[in-house]
Each structure stands twice: as C-alpha cells, then as structure tokens.
Amino acid sequence: MKSIVENKAYVFALRMIKAYRYLTQEQREFIISKQMLRSGTAIGALIREAEHGQSKADFISKMNIALKEANETEYWLMLLKDSEYIDEKTFTSIHKDCDELIRLLVSIVKTSKENHGTK
What we know:
Elements: H1 4-25, H2 31-51, H3 56-82, H4 88-116
Helix pairs in contact: 1-2, 1-4, 2-3, 3-4
C-alpha cells in the first residue's frame, strides 16, 4: 500500500501534467510551465526513491530534496498566477495541494531527523 504522501504526490504530478498541457496548448507559455512540470513531478519520484533508500540518512536526504522540489513548484505556481497565465481560482486549488505536500514533507523530514538523531 502506498503512503498518504506518495499518493498525494502522484495525484499532484497528474495535476502538473494537465496544467502543463493547458499552459502550453491554450496559453502558449513554455518556459515557466516546463519548470513547474519538472519540479512538480519530481516530488513523487523522490518520495518513491526514498522508500528504498540505502539508509535512514539516504531516506532523509531524498525526502528533503522532495521538499525542495515542492517549494520550487510553489514558486513557479506563484509566478504563473502573478503573470496572469493562471487565474486566482486555479492557483488557489493547485496551491492548496502543493502546500499540503510541503507540510507533509516538512513533518516527515523533521520526524525522521529526530528519530535518527540528526538536526
């Protein structure tokens, strides 16, 4: 069974793919949307990698990188909203999911570090 964060990251990646399709086909925006697609789909891939990490430290490292990718995705989403490529309603919906992933990953990294005895 997949973890909650893995499931949420997978669904989020699908949203990123659909958003990318919309942005490239309807809005003719290719640069920022490509960055958003890369970082937004990397989150789930890194979580999957972390599941089979070589060590607890490797798990923490991969989850931390997934967190960085989620944070980067949030940045691209904000740029797309502020440059009016996506509307407020679309942004709010996607941002809510992104923020939830960030909060989950922060919690996982923090708890894992505490259990592993690292800071």
